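Render this sequence as a predicted structure.
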Amino acid sequence: MQNFEFYNPTRIVFGEDTIDQLDNLVPKGARVLLLYGGESARKNGTLGEARSFLPSREVLEFGGIEPNPTYEKLMEAVEIVRQKQVQFLLAVGGGSVIDGTKFIAAAADYDGEAWEILETRGKGVKSAMPFGSVLTLPATGSEMKASAVVTRKSTLEKLPFRSPFVFPKFSILDPKKTYTLPNRQLANGVADAFTHVMEQYLTYPAGARVQDRFSEGLLQTLIEIAPAVLSKEVDYNTRANLMWTATLALNSLIGAGVPQDWSTHMIGHEMTALYGIDHARTLAIVLPANLQVRRDAKREKLLQYAERVWEITEGSEDQRIDDAIQATRNFFESLGLPTRLSDYEIDAGQIEILISKLKSHGLTELGERGDVSLEVSRRILDLCL
């Protein structure tokens, strides 16, 4: 196991009707900016609930944060924060709203051009405004981590940043808030959480038995509950398990002390920036191809994954690896997620454009060993067609 330092100060308030805890969590007398995405947060009553549990505070609102939050939109909120002297931010929504709120929190305090936060991956962030979240869409784990991703429409860029200053002070997780979500968003959430686990688990053995078993348990949980998540019959415990699994998939716990491989995410980000494909759906395209191209480097963990997660124990080693990769592709497709670029009418002529974007963002040594060069990325993308 590798050396590690684990730090996560986010308070999690989990369970039914826990939004009533806002009054105890948000500073009294603070000027609060409520941040949300579409009007569904208002229509389903979550915004109204949040306001009702924030007495003795001045509450402002800012909506319209996109599914892939844009720099342009978020800077509008930054201006409001500065002009109105907002003291606390409250995100109401899924990972995109929370990611956007993290950027706003950092940019409001930033001395300089705010896009530098993304260009430097957060290295220049020295402070950030305090904020909390009310999670409505389990997927990204943003409610309990210190990183975010922001898109710039003008340049078709989607870049991540990380800073210990942008941990949420608290996150409220009420599984009932998922009841009104469409199946497309639920399926995306399952796929996103699944891939988060895979990118911290399916690398090479590091002697980290706890992290391995923890990751395998999360993967099996997602596989088991997926049909019920997408069923017309809404079940509280199913949604509760989805919500908590998605949080644990990316709160840094399973990634402590083990090598990590974020190449699937980085390649997927370029697809979203260029073509507007849902983030989770880019992962469903890239991950099976990534595993196939790099099967030799990941051989030991692929065999472990085949046996422990999919119970594949028969056949030669190569056959078991083939079956595990196919099971992964089948799982995504069972959620209704296409796994080929051709499903989005993207052909081989786009590969070099994607490669040029990876190069311009310095993403030339990806993977757990830093050996995913542009040539390897090209092979992965070719297999995505």
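Summary. DSSP finds 15 helices and eight strands in the chain. The mean pLDDT is 96.
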